[in-house]
Structures
1.
Amino acid sequence: MNVDWNSVERILLVRLRSIGDTVLSTPTFSALRRFLPQAEIDFLLEDWVAPVLSGLDGLGEVVTTGKTLSSRLSSIRRLRSKRYDVAVNLHGGPTSTFLMRASGAKTRIGYSYYRYAGLHTHLLGSASDFWRTEKTHSAEQQLALVGAFGVPVEDRPDSVLGRDVIAEESISRRIRDHSIDPGRIALVHPGAAFDTKRWASEKFVSLAKELVTRGLVPVFVGSRAEADLVAGIVQQTESEAKGWSDLSLPEVAALARKSRIFIGNDSGIAHIAAAAGTNVAVIFGSSNRHHWRPWTRQPNKLINIELPCQPCPGYACAEFGHPRCIEEVSVEQVVSAIDDLITA
């Protein structure tokens, strides 16, 4: 059953959770934007991640929600006031499903395997059904939800980011203040959600020294929660490496655009860098590389070792008691990937 897109004026994309999830939902936004150039297309995002879409061309409103009941009720009131014709549930968790239903959208699209799938009006069995392939990327999984109901998605649009003018000016000023040549910046993110995805800090120290010998300036970034990790690595490099753990998400995107290369773990920052058009080298441990690889047409490298237990949920290593998948990735492997990318 297709959607009567000719009558659609307002669309809501629901994508709760993380930075990477949000970035990888933008190909679906782009597909809808070009298909319905006059429609208003809004996002429902968690409040802390919403800035990642700051300045995105063609975006209507970002409706945010927090964790508290009062925040959720406020979000529902705002959603209902918009009178959406279509809501697309790109997440599928219980909260996103209930908020989608509470929006009052007449057409509600999701997957048949979602919890509370009955709250949707249009269901797709799986992304594999749509793409006719066993393995699908997260971006393809989300694109399939609108592709299955009549939106052209076969060219698999890129991820996109907006340009936040204030963030761009802030990063340009910081680079000048530190006397850094933008053409030499190697953006490095040493953090990740789980130990099974986090390359050792001492290896990042060794990597920084290798970057310096190649004429690059390592700029380590992280959230405020990762400030000690970033500072500890920079202190040990005894080089011109910088450590910035006070950047907003739009500032990270602005810095990525000015960087020659990104190196880091599988994380939301890696997806920001890929969407910014930066050459990226991503170190993978427990994650599903096919599902979470950089969604980019720019030169990129996935760095990993092969183990039969991959991928796994990643919360802890159930196979060996310690995450060999990330521990055994060598500095030499990463440096080799970087050399390929800086000469690409």
2.
Amino acid sequence: MRQAKIGLYVGLVFASGVLLGVFGQRFYAASTVTAKSNTPGNKGPAGFRAQYLAEMQTRLNLTEDQFNKVAQFLDETRARMNEVSKTRIEPEIMAIRKRMEPEMNAIRDEQIQKIRAILTPEQALGYDQLRKEREERSKQKVKEAAH
């Protein structure tokens, strides 16, 4: 009789562990997927715009004319924001980068010297090659972005 009770208790503990594991995994997976899928940054501007319009349509019950006007307002706002970014923000960022370039280069050079100091001569040659390849890839990306 006592062994049957012990067996029953062990079985109950095992079953509760299985149930907790199943529900815990489902909760974790659902939370993770929901968090990723609701992040506006993952959808890009077009996805965010579509979601925003859909939510407005659903919650405010917009007429077709209202929906089209809201979409037009969003497009106009985005065009104006892009223009401000292009004509005012980007030039200021470039000016700041240009002013900070000597300091940034000094910091980068210090890092390179510290790394080279701990490498063997053979490793230093490999490191120099690695840096050269990275600089070439970086220049290539800048060229591609400019075109």
3.
Amino acid sequence: MSTRTASSSARRPRSRGGPTRAQALRRRLLLVLTVVVAAAGSALLLAPWADEAVQEVVTLPLRHEDIIRQQAHDKDLDPALIAGVIFAESHFRDQTSHAGAKGLMQLMPDTADFIAQKSGGIAFRQQDLATPQVNIAYGSWYLRYLLDRYDGSEPLALAAYNAGHGTVDGWLADAAANDREFKVADIPYPETRAYVSKVLDARRDYRREYADELGI
């Protein structure tokens, strides 16, 4: 296309009063280059703030911190642990997984029904899990339940959050039957081992980066 345009221009006489097409093109290119350079300079000046924004929004997002603080207080939990679970489960996006887990803390329908029954949520409906307040409240209740079930062991509670407490109970029973202590390295599911590490790493990062927002 550019070849046809250039050939056509060669056949036309140049107007004497104005710039040629090549001159106009060069001016446009110069204008674009000026805008790009100016934008690059602004980016350099704003780099510290830009880096922080990218980290918060993309790498380590945080939303609904008021709900997280409230639920952490009500359930006697580390708010950074709740944030770490949400990060690992949904990256703070309200979504439904292929397996049917719902919302920010990715609760399975049967788990949500169990929580509602145990916590007295008689008016609970599955669609309520799309509400951040309900989803985080139910997920936080379940975290507290699992921590109590495993004597405060965060790795075991997180493994149960990912794989189910019945599965973790089975692992512990097998270890006891063989007269050995069950450790995180003994988790037979690679996905669950990685999940436990991911949540604990995220909890550390949230405590460092969002201490004020989470009230830590």
